[in-house]
Design goal:
This protein has a 5-stranded antiparallel sheet with strand order 14-13-20-19-18, with helices on both faces. Strands 2-1-6 form a 3-stranded mixed sheet. The protein is elongated, with a radius of gyration of 49 Å. With 499 residues, it is an alpha+beta fold. 38% of the residues lie in helices and 18% in strands.
Length: 499
Amino acid sequence: MHTRPRIAALLLFWSFLLVACGPSADAAVVPRSTIAPTVAPSSVPSPTLIPVFAAGSRVAGVDVAGLDISAARERLVAALTITPAPLDLRVDDVSLTIDPQTIGRSVSVEDLLSQARVALGTGKPVSLPLTISLNETALRAQLVSLANRVATPAQISVISSTKIISRSFAYTPGTTLDVDAALSRIRAALSFARPATTLALTLTEDPVVPQVSNERILAEVQSMAGQWSGVIGFHLHDLKTGTEVRFHDKTVFAGASTIKVAIMLNAYINLPKFTKEQELWLDEMIKYSDNIAANSLLAAAVGGTSTESAFAGATQMSKMLANDLGLKNIYLYVPYEALDYIQQKKIKYTCGPQDPVGEKPYTETGCALRATPFAIAQIYEVIDTCAKGGGVLPEKFAKLSPTRCQQMLDRLATNDDKTRMVAGLPNGTRAEHKSGWIENLQADNGIIRSPGGDYALAIYVYKKLPKGVFMWTDEQMAPVVAAFSRLAYTAYNPVKLKK
């Protein structure tokens, strides 16, 4: 058998196989004991950075750049909690010392940090001004006291003319300490870590227009009346306060056309509404002082159209003034331009007492058409009160209402006469008035609406006619009415003078 050679061949084959699968002859042999074991990655965290304020950051003027919130707090407390020195206020030669502690000046570092905190760690600089707290009530009280010490009052004066009777009230403005502005300046002055120790305050022009006292108005009325060689009647009524200035206001004057305001009132009392023709009469009577229109309204008030009805209407109106409104020495018993009718018909008519009548000084009045400044002013006052929703007119007369009373005022504002009362007023001033004039008298009465206040005013100017003179002209009389109107207007709205 060939067993041995076969075994030898197998051994040789395995020898070659082991050599081929073994390590390379060039490879380094590493002992088992020198091989490093595999290590897992480390899990230890990096340290956290504390947020700080960016470069250029300032809080209340204090540099906090690079500081965290705690360090910033320490620096702000050190810089801002110093007790400030007293603040010396000076107004001209008057001084007042303000102790910051007495007015509760304080700084809240925590409030400042609360506002600045949002910028921490953002890399953006923060800039916050110093904010302080004050007891403004306490500070204002001290400033008001100072203002009272340093204020100078306005000075009332009178501008007069030597050529004509004309006077106007004027004023030089006073000076005052603007408390609100001073308070703002003091707050600003104290809004520093080390506030200023002195602060100069200046006075400003007082914007308040001074009021002229009734005593001063009356004194000027008396002085002006003394320049007139006749009789002046004057009544001024403040529609807000009810105060009055009265000079010969119960002297009886001829009523002339001033009583046409009462004719209008009587028509409104008795007629629930007006026809187109009656509306025209009202317009003609008030705007142009038309006498025939006035007579027609007197007649219409009693339901008629004739002259006899006009007489009846005049009596009706006069009784209303006396009985319902309680007015004395104001009446119309004879319609306008009725002398020829009286002579032709030989009719009797009512007549008041013969002159002299009423209070001194006396004037020439006739007996059938009279008025006093006091009584005529009352008519305007009750119409105005009615227009505002109150007073005697709507109580006594069912046909009157605030709307209808306002209509009367609006009609009076259409008066076309600009030479008497209106001539003493600035252009555009609303005057609800009715004027009148005869040979020896001129008058104008009404309500004036002005920036300084509304008032009722009645002015009567009388001068006896010498022999050979049959009538005083408008050029002689109307400027006197205008002068007293101007005086009253400037009492409410004095002319501002420059210092």
